[in-house]
Amino acid sequence: MKIKFWGCRGSIPVADNRMMKYGGNTTCLEVWLDDRLLIIDAGTGIRLLGEQLVKNNVKNIDVFITHSHWDHIMGFPFFMPIYNKDVKIRIFGCTSSYKKLQDIFAGQMSYEYFPVSFSDLKSEIQFQETCGDKYRINNHTIKTIQTNHPIYTTGIRIEKGNKSFVFITDNELNLEKPKTKPEKFIEFCSDADYLIHDAQFTDMEYPKHTGWGHSTFEQVIALAKESNAKNAGFYHHGPDRKDIELDGLLMKYSHYCTDNNCNFTVFAVKEMQEIEL
Q1: What is the pLDDT of residues 206-264, one digit of tens each?
Q2: Rounded to 5 degrees, what are φ and ψ at 276?
Q3: Which domain holds residue 71?
Q4: CB 41 within 8 Å of CB 72
Q5: pTM for the complete prediction?
Q6: Which of 27, 47, 67, 187 has the fewest CB atoms below 10 angstroms from its CB?
């Protein structure tokens, strides 16, 4: 399993020289399940990933969409493989909206917003609803969990053998009335080699943003500790969070983990960072 992060910014993409180290593109991950490609989310990071896939002549692509908020789908119209008639794309996801996932994707490409309509795309695109499903791709087991976010949002766990990767974005771990209780997340993340989790706010910022569907650095550390994760990555960086701030927060929470006997490594996810399991 090889993972590469093409976008890790939350809410909106940013173009700011104070945010170059961790990147300004919104959510997109490239995950190779041996020789099969799975893309997680279609934020603005998917544009550059698409250029790479065209260069490498990749023709079969699976895309897993955690939810349909703009920062997780807005890069799709700029994903070059969708304009290639030889490319086949399967899009997995779940929505609680009255609209189907396909209608949501088509809607953002209506003529009011974009010059090319969804119906004019050349690639073969299939949509598959995966609400609460467990399924397999290329001998890898894919498990999902509903997160605590204003709309239906899905976390994903990918396993093969004794290796596991968990990605949970847009999740409020300490929501007063959660859709999914803390113990379910602990079970879902149990013994993960890598746990990548939303950490958009600090504990001081959080009280002003309760109910927004995002977690804090310390909440992520607590989840990693209780679930016995081996590595914990802070993700979904706030659009105003500058590199120097993230550097300081990472140093602070690295010391915090040392003082609190964490048996895992913490890091802030960077654009173009790679992980191999």
Answers
A1: 999 999 999 999 999 999 999 999 999 999 999 999 999 999 999 999 999 999 889 99
A2: -130, 130
A3: 2-276
A4: yes
A5: 0.96
A6: 187
